[in-house]
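Minimal example, chain plus iron/sulfur cluster.
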Amino acid sequence: MVTEAKIKEIFSSIQGEGSVVGYKQIFVRFCGCNLNCNYCDTDFSENDSQIYTPLTLKEKIFSDFDVMAAHSISFTGGEPLLWVDFLNEFIPLIKSTPDMKIYLETNATLTKPLLQIKGNLDIIAADIKLPSATGRDTFYLHKSFLENCGGVQTFAKIVFDKNITEDEINKCVEIVQNSGIELVLQPKMDNDIVSVDSEFCSLVMDKFLKKYKYVRLIPQTHKFLNIR
Ligand code: SF4
């Protein structure tokens, strides 16, 4: 049987978050997600989505985009790891493009699919979701996921708002303490406005830095630039 995936959209833009911020990427947004975060503003529904096979996706990307100019191809969602079999067939078709990196944007809760695909990835942008922002405690899932990212360049993104707690800061640090994974703090946005002031951002960053060295604060730059 041919492997297929439901894809919401494919577009080229500048990465606005995390440690490869500012690079040009080709984004492939997959439908569906296994979480339901309070602050989610992404449309990953199947409405207006299209079905692709690995081959038709490759043809679409090469016909519509300047693949050679892109830093990487970003698999995003929703949750792209829900489509792990498709990805494992698709990535080898595009990986031979010189210097093309494979970037996975994930909610970092699905360890089993991660282990199936890890050897095909170059960069993992993993979320650590805070219960105060998502309404659900997923720390144990992030812990297992991040413990299994070894060998792939990985950073963990933490979206926070005024409700972040000391206990959450401690748990985030606990998860990455042994791996040395970089933590990228990202203040939650209300549309294109940062939801907390710069003083609060500094305060939160300092609290993290007291416990862990590899911490950066990077807001969503694409919202300031008004790009996707
Ligand atoms: S994991 Fe991401 S895409 Fe899924 S509901 Fe949460 S914010 Fe939305």
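The pocket of iron/sulfur cluster is lined by residues 33, 35-37, 40, 42, 44, 77-79, 107 (CB under 6 Å). The longest strand covers residues 5-14.
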